[in-house]
Write a structure and sequence with these properties.
- It is a single chain.
- The protein has about 170 residues and is of the alpha/beta class.
- The protein has one domain.
- The protein is built from six helices and twelve strands.
- A hairpin with a 3-residue loop joins strand 10 (about 135-140) and strand 11.
- The longest helix is centred in the middle third of the chain and has 13 residues, at about 95-105.
């Protein structure tokens, strides 16, 4: 079952879900935790600063406009494990949940990329629900910086309560 973002939830989801970082530095970028970046610009910045994310979620778009043609333009070296998932704008698909569950059940030995066919904006919610505790997720907050989420029982509960408000289709 896929889930559609209801109109009345759009404004709430525009607010940062975690700590807003105006810039990415070694202090807020590096960690012993599993690191995930969501979004092309955020992933590109992490690659340029060699901050060592384990997994990146990309769609080759910025502000819903196609901006990048391939992973090399985002600073990836080309030997990453690539997973593909469909996720149209305004939705969270069951196939995306399944792909994330598969990735985190079996793990990946080297850097991975989830290449979204559609839109990566809502991927943060299913990520929070499927990743292990203490994972750190970074995603871009347009015109403000990057949001850092340390996944805890509390953030999982928040994400779950938000996803419950989505409309099943």
């Amino acid at each position: 079952m896929d889930l559609a973002l209801p109109e009345n939830l759009r404004q709430e989801l525009k607010e940062p879900f975690g700590e807003l970082c105006r810039e990415i530095t070694l202090e807020n970028g590096s960690s012993l935790s599993y690191l995930i970046t969501v979004g092309d610009v955020t992933s590109k910045i992490f690659n340029e600063k060699f901050l060592g994310q384990n997994l990146s979620v990309i769609d080759f778009k910025v502000a819903r406009e196609k901006k990048f043609a391939n992973i090399k333009e985002l600073g990836f070296v080309g030997n990453e494990v690539i997973f593909n998932a469909d996720n149209p704008a305004g939705f969270v698909t069951s196939s995306l949940f399944k792909k994330l569950a598969e990735i985190f059940k079996f793990g990946i030995e080297k850097k991975g990329i989830i290449q979204i066919n559609g839109e990566d904006d809502l991927v943060v919610l299913p990520l929070i629900l499927t990743v292990p505790l203490n994972t750190i997720i970074y995603y871009g907050q347009p015109n403000e910086g990057v949001v850092k989420i340390l996944v805890s029982e509390g953030t999982k509960e928040q994400a779950y309560n938000l996803v419950l408000k989505f409309r099943p289709i």
